[in-house]
Amino acid sequence: MLDNSEFKSRLVLINKRLAYIEKARHKSIRFLFKNIKLMSGKRVRGLLVLLTCEAVCGKIRSGAINTAAAIELLHHATLIHDDIVDNSRKRRGDETLNKKLGYEFSVLTGDYLLSRANSLIFGENDRDLLRIMTESVIEICEGEIEEVYNKGNAGLAEHQYLEIRRKKTASLIRASVEAGLLAGGAKGRNKDLAEFGVYLGMAFQIKDDILDMTSSVRKLGKTAGSDIREGKATLPYILALRNSANGGREAMKKLFERGNVKKLIEKIKNAGGIRDAEEKALAYVYRAKTALRRAKLKYPAKKELIEKLADYVIERNY
Which one of 226, 251, 293, 312 has the fewest beta carbons within 10 angstroms of its own beta carbon? Predict the structure, then answer.
């Protein structure tokens, strides 16, 4: 769906700004950029910045493009750091940076991208934008710390999972729409749009959890079942536990602790974990759309494109 003309023209704007950032003077920095797929990705967060800006002022301002690029740089930095923490081998169909170049380059690259994102944000000279981005980075770090703390926890509760995902994933999607508001010239915060961002972020993450168990390696660009191998209790697993009798729960916990991916995914499917997770994701998208429709924006026609992006989040297969 992101291949249609409505989104492609906006993707081009973000990619052009990122391409400019890739043209570093130093040979060492150019070497790093050759080894990361900065120009790949769905760009959902960057698109939300541009579309929200348009919904406020009717056009895409230069500041919105800078902000969209900054958010994509920040997101890419978090992926690199995630791969280091998880010792992941694949990302977007390629070897992860830590497998290609080692931990030293990976840590430094993640920090460098974060610093470049900060530089773009500082350049906008907007205290509210800086506050929103800083709050989001704090929440992402808190979510990551909580996730690492609970690694291997076979009995993670649903409310713990949701809080981790609200911070680690949904906070940056919420920040994207709030940043788009500021880029469009809006004053203050829009509670309805903030809710939209949180709900859409939760749906996005749950869909990722489902795809991790149902999609192919070719589509995912990484090994299927990687979350289980890394000791992460995701929503399909948690809901399957809830649906199972005591004996079934204990059997699944043992498979989880052993990292027995194939057998555990089969049991999760049989216990309705994936089905129930899909229902939860759909419910979050419904709540997101409801909040979006409540939001008062000067150019409501642009909200239709934001709604299409919400549909993509739940309909995608990678």
Answer: 293
Distance CA 298, CA 307 (A): 16
pTM: 0.94
Q: Is 277 within a domain?
A: yes
Between CA 66 and CA 74 the distance in angstroms is: 12
Tell which residue, 58, 112, 109, has the closest CA to residue 83.
109
274 and 236 Cβ atoms separated by less than 8 Å:
yes
Q: CATH number for the domain including 190? A: 1.10.600.10
Indicate whether 309 belongs to any domain.
no
Confidence label for 318 from pLDDT (cuts 50, 70 and 90): confident
Q: What are 123-175's pLDDT values in tens digits?
A: 999 999 999 999 999 999 999 999 999 999 999 999 999 999 999 999 999 99
Q: Can you tell me the distance from the alpha carbon of 80 to that of 301, in angstroms, rounded to the nearest whole number?
A: 36
